[in-house]
């Protein structure tokens, strides 16, 4: 017989593997381009009981596989804001984003601040240029449809964040390439003009980067908050955070920052 799963808006958008209703604060994680929630949602078991980890699941992957991909950054921002608003109002929250996820987390934070006067207690940014950096322009000017699949694949393999066995299966590989392209397309629809507003945030911002990754314009992040901005370089490439020792450093540092905030 047919079993039809009906997921609530919250269950579709959020992976929360380790529920902690009594936690004092929530850490909301935004994954990198082409990925789902499997990696960052596991942080829930590594952080202490005072922090509950929620990981954002975008359309087109995991239990949302049959949904159309998001067309632009605005639609993602609107979904995250509308689904999570009640939760974000009820207790303090922090955002962590890696690469593409950093831009999504920033866009969501900006919307929350503009519309509701809400902001995270801390923004944790990983492997991402400041949102108003000229370095983003090269990403925006790439005609994604002109880039061949094998070039995208070679790029993903060079980053070393995709398990090689995932790429062996043709269907999985095709879906990964499609998801990555769609996420990149979303990123191209995002723009932030620093001149349009005063310093948007008052929270502290921590920026992480891999020592062997390409350099990111991290220092521009200082210009978007009146809070403190700190920078950490950890050994490794673009996916330095998948190394257990680096993950352990991130967990400890994030915990300390949230608790002191």
TrEMBL record:
Keywords: Fatty acid biosynthesis, Fatty acid metabolism, Hydrolase, Lipid biosynthesis, Lipid metabolism. It comes from Dasyornis broadbenti. It is an enzyme of class 3 (hydrolase). GO terms for molecular function: fatty acyl-[ACP] hydrolase activity. It comes from the Eukaryota. GO terms for biological process: medium-chain fatty acid biosynthetic process. It holds the Pfam family Thioesterase. It catalyses: (9Z)-octadecenoyl-[ACP] + H2O = (9Z)-octadecenoate + holo-[ACP] + H(+). Residues 26-255 form the Thioesterase domain. PANTHER family: S-ACYL FATTY ACID SYNTHASE THIOESTERASE, MEDIUM CHAIN, THIOESTERASE. Its EC number is 3.1.2.14. This is S-acyl fatty acid synthase thioesterase, medium chain. Belongs to the thioesterase family.
């Amino acid at each position: 017989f047919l079993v039809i799963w009906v997921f609530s808006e919250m269950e579709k958008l959020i992976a929360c593997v380790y529920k902690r209703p009594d936690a004092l604060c929530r850490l909301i994680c935004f994954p990198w381009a082409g990925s789902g929630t499997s990696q960052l949602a596991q942080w829930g078991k590594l952080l202490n009981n005072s922090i509950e980890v929620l990981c954002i699941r975008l359309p087109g992957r995991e239990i949302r596989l049959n949904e159309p991909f998001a067309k632009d950054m605005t639609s993602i921002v609107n979904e995250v804001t509308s689904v999570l608003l009640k939760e974000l109002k009820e207790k303090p929250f922090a955002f962590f984003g890696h690469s593409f996820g950093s831009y999504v987390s920033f866009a969501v934070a900006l919307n929350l601040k503009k519309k509701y006067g809400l902001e995270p207690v801390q923004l944790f940014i990983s492997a991402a240029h400041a949102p108003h950096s000229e370095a983003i322009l090269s990403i925006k000017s790439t005609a994604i449809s002109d880039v061949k699949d094998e070039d995208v694949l070679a790029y993903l393999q060079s980053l070393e964040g995709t398990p090689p066995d995932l790429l062996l299966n043709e269907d999985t590989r095709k879906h990964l390439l499609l998801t990555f392209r769609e996420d990149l397309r979303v990123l191209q629809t995002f723009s932030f003009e620093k001149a349009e507003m005063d310093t948007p945030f008052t929270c502290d911002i921590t920026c992480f980067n891999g020592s062997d990754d390409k350099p990111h314009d991290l220092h521009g992040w200082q210009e978007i908050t009146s809070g403190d901005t700190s920078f950490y370089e950890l050994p490794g490439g673009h996916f330095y955070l998948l190394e257990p020792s680096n993950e352990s450093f991130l967990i400890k540092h994030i915990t300390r920052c949230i608790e002191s905030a």
